[in-house]
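Hi all, long-time lurker, first post. I run a small reading group and we've been trying to get comfortable going from sequence to structure in the token notation. Rather than ask abstract questions, I figured I'd post a concrete chain and ask someone more experienced to write out its structure so we can walk through it together at our next meeting. Sequence below, copied exactly:
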Amino acid sequence: MLSHRIKMKKLAYLLAVLAFLMSCVLAHAVDPDKDLLIYLPFDEGKGNTAEDVGPNGFVGDVKNAKWVEGVSGQALQFKGGSVNFDPLKIDQPEEMTIEFWFKPDDKIDSGARIDLLYRLQGGGRPHVTFNRGGVLFGYYFATQGVELPIHTNHDAFEPEWYYFVGTQTKKTGWMYINGELDNETEAGGDARMDFGTQGMCIAASQGNANFFNGMVDEFKMWSVAFTAEDVKASMEKTLAVQAEGKLTTTWGKLKSGSDGIRF
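-- Answer (accepted) --
Happy to help. Here is the structure in token form:
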């Protein structure tokens, strides 16, 4: 009888652990229809607009850039240019993830300020910037109460492809480079994303300064935080499908789960 009670207690404990683990998975589940704020595959191949193939359908103006082969399909290569979006008019997310690929034209280990991601107008957060205040590279994000930096541990960025992820929960912000955690900091509140009111600019600040000269591909922004597993899965799946055409198939892959994000 005692042996039976011990077995039942063990079974109850295992079931409780399983329920906890399942709740963790469900808490981190990503739904493209609900959580994807913008997705720019940069696969147009021509013209002066970049189209969001996610559920919101935003359109950006491309200036001083050319269409080239990217990490997956096409990409944009900038030379004193940018992609500019009017205010995105989307709700403030409580959590947030920004992911994209970039390749500098030349090695960056110092020099003048370079903005990979910024607002189209005004101040605010987030932004992704080289050479700000003596720091080589950082993800500059915010909560509703405070603006915060995450600084890189890299000492140089070569002219090669890098996969960037900046993500935050209400408690913590993380920056990943090439699928590996680069650095983190405490957050302490809901995310703040000023692209909704200030617009968004890729490869420059406010469309006309601090230009990033190089390539950008596969830009996505989500209203949920990625786990370390999500980061690696997204990176690996993008590399795995680099030979495929994206523009007509990517949204279907995201919705079906084959992009590597857990649903």
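A couple of things your group might point at:
The domain at 31-256 is CATH 2.60.120.200 (Jelly Rolls).
The chain has two domains: 1-30, 31-256.
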